[in-house]
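U., I forgot to send this yesterday:
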Amino acid sequence: ASPILWFSLFIALTALVVLFGVEKGIEKVSKVMMPILAVLTVGIAIYVLTMDGAMDGLKYYLLPNMSNFSVMTVLAAMGQLFYSMSLAMGIMITYGSYMPKSTNLESSVRQIEIFDTGFAFFAGLMIVPSVFIFSGGDESALNAGAGLMFITLPKVFNEMPAGGIIGFLFFVLVFFAAITSSISVMEAIVSSLMDKFKLTRIKSCLIVIVICLIMGIPSSLGNGIWSNVKILGMDFLTFFDFLSNSIIMPIVALCTCILIGWVIKPKTIADEVTRNGERFSRRALFDVMIKYIAPICLVFILISYTLAQFGIISL
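Result:
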């Protein structure tokens, strides 16, 4: 019952923010929480670099080792970029629809690129040297995945002045970062229901809450009392993650590229970008990317991540 309780609480908090809308809910929460998390991440990264043994981790993180470079490295990087930018999830389109018509779209895209990359860089700067410090330079310790945050960082906080307070605050903000991601996904669905069926925000939120609870309960119990139930050899959470992230998202993104690149044509997007007289400096690059490069990359991501899930290849 405990996983269901915490899962329900998480969904309720998400829905509560969505219920207040973008400006009163999502914007206010993100404006406060995300800058604090960013400052903490930078501060912790700087502190980590002052610890003994951090330089070995810094070299490993920043200096390329071409002997480990392969096509699989490129595919893994493309997949990470794809999910990090929340592409093909309807989030960018939904949030974009709330932006004032006077907004410079190309400038906004550039800001997203810079902040997403910068945040990822400092997160790596915070975690990779930490692993080297507390594992004695064991590179294999980096394969712990998400556990790095919950195993290695507490050791860093234990060494820091006022580390208990900083660690508590950091993980609270990480929780809010997860909430904002959940909010963005729910907002996309809620706004779609509102537009399609002319429902109020409250009714749309209630419908989404019920659907989330019904579909989420198997995942919340998949590593607990339902751990013996497998789908294609995967527990519920792993299966739904594989289905959504590795199958549905790349397919939707591929269809979007085909729609924009070959059906309605890239000029439609270019006209929207330049509607206020702004210059679309990346127009030629955009045309090539949406018509040729992105679809090819998405096919490789779809195939490679599917094969990797079943252990046929390793990413």
